[in-house]
């Protein structure tokens, strides 16, 4: 008797691939959060929108969307395009993690935000006080 339904078996390699991509995705999310804490910005405008809502929304959205796509690709693993998608995802997330670790290892700091760039470069002046202490004043170039 034939059963109607979609039945498939997954090898350990396929399951390991899915888990690896998902773990790299979560690692990318946390490394992005670290970058943001240091003053950086999210390059992806869609993810930046979720960051404006809050870090929880960013993490949940990132995990849910990637998780759903990984399940879709796994279910369709017998199709060439899905296999390419799975391995491409692994490569992309691996490269992202290498970039994140490179940024940390090389001590690269985020570029100041656009708001700070509009204010122009800043200079500091040491102003002697009457009681022989020194005060530092920070002025934007062009301020009077």
Large-scale geometry: elongated
Sheet having the most strands: 2 strands, antiparallel
Radius of gyration (CA) equals 24 Å
- What is the chain-wise order of helices and strands? HHHHHEE
- Please indicate the percent range of residues in DSSP E strands (runs of 2 or more): 5-15%
Tell me the number of strands.
Answer: 2
Termini, distance in Å? 89 Å
Q: Report the uncertain regions.
A: 116-125, 138-144
Number of separate helices: 5
Characterization of the model:
This protein is 62% helix and 10% strand. The chain is mainly alpha-helical. The protein has one domain.
Question: What secondary-structure arrangement, pairings included, does this model have?
Answer:
Layout: H1 12-37, H2 45-53, H3 55-75, H4 80-106, H5 114-119, E1 122-128, E2 134-140
Antiparallel strand pairs: 1-2
Helix pairs in contact: 1-3, 1-4, 2-3, 3-4
Question: How would you summarize what this structure contains?
Answer:
By secondary structure, this protein is mainly alpha-helical. It contains 5 helices and 2 strands.
Output the keywords.
144 residues, mainly alpha, two-stranded antiparallel sheet, 10% strand, disordered C terminus
């Amino acid at each position: 008797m034939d059963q109607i339904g979609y039945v498939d078996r997954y090898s350990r390699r396929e399951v390991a691939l899915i888990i690896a991509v998902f773990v790299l995705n979560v690692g990318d999310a946390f490394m992005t959060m670290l970058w943001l804490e240091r003053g950086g910005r999210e390059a992806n405008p869609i993810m930046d929108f979720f960051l404006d809502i809050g870090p929880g929304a960013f993490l949940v959205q990132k995990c849910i969307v990637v998780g759903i796509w990984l399940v879709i690709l796994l279910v369709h693993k017998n199709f060439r395009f899905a296999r390419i998608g799975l391995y491409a995802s692994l490569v992309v997330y691996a490269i992202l993690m290498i970039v994140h670790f490179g940024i940390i290892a090389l001590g690269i700091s985020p570029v100041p935000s656009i708001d700070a760039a509009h204010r122009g470069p800043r200079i500091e002046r040491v102003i002697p006080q009457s009681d022989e202490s020194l005060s530092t004043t920070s002025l934007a170039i062009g301020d009077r």
